[in-house]
Amino acid sequence: MRVRAALTCLALCLATFARAAAVSEPDAAAAPPAVAPADRCPAEPVAPTAEESLRDASQAVDNGLLWKATKDGRVAYLYGTIHVAKLQWVYPGPRVLAAMRASDVVSLELDMTDPAILARLRRVLMRTSDSPTLAPALQARLAAQIEAACLSPEALAPLRPEMQAVTVEVMQGRQFGLYPTYGIDEAIAAVAGHLHKPIRGLETPEMQAGLLVSDDPAKAAESVAAILDELEGGKSPQMLQRLAGDWQRGDLVDLGAYASWCECLETPQERADFVKLVDERNPLMVDKIVKWHAEGKRLFVAVGTLHMVGRAGLPELLKARGFKVERVSLSDAR
User: Fold this and answer.
1) Which contacts of 238-244 are long-range, i.e. CB under 8 A and separated by 24 or more positions?
2) How is residue 87 annotated by DSSP?
3) Confidence bin at 26 (pLDDT 50/70/90)
């Protein structure tokens, strides 16, 4: 089975934005509406009450992976995130929260709190009169998967076909309690607002969307077909569950062995796609981190966990730029 490498980082983040772009009400953080409830449909995410939020935040433990990068007496924290998560993971534990408090700026792949960013995403991810359309057979396959996922075709219809398919794939995690609504990036953005920390985006909506959607009908159809192959093969949810579990435990060893178990890097094209979707973005992120750090800013950088892994990951790239980089243990704080 061919599993798209995009699912593990870019697609999850973009699906979060696509979900918000698909509606026009202020509460755009809600997930795509499900179709009529059925026993086979996963539960919808539940918003905690104010009392529950206060309780859970006060009892939060640290999850994920954190590094401390030091140069010229200033620190840049690197925090690996996951773009779909469980409700109990959204509250940062004491060490992650302390790192945020000690920083001047919180940096994310995209600034999810900026209405202008959402507007730009809407322009690049929403269907237009010039957007590619799918052949009837491929459209029928996509419609079948939307129905099987208990999602509303009307809610997804405004999106480009690739993003409809990506959203369906992301929503596969609901059977394990994993929702984009609880994405760690969004949680970090919310905490940054509470702490009155400015947010800076490392990338642009156009940059990210350009890696996933295309105006070329053949490329759009190829992307949709690849995702549908994964959905029909039935293994995507298990891969996503394993990735989420590795993140929650901070299991850098299994994350480092991702290529051996994800079933997504088996062909030259899949490996090339992964390099483009993950590895080639990392040096550009590091350039901005180094620039902002040189301006005297103490940074808390939160991006998808796979951007932190291996020789092409952000920790190793910062080492090469003269930073002293140390992994911060979170497991003994749980």
Assistant:
1) 239/3, 239/7, 239/263, 239/264, 240/7, 240/84, 240/172, 240/173, 240/176, 240/178, 241/173, 241/176, 241/178, 243/8, 243/82, 243/305, 244/82, 244/84, 244/85, 244/86, 244/173, 244/176, 244/178
2) G
3) very low
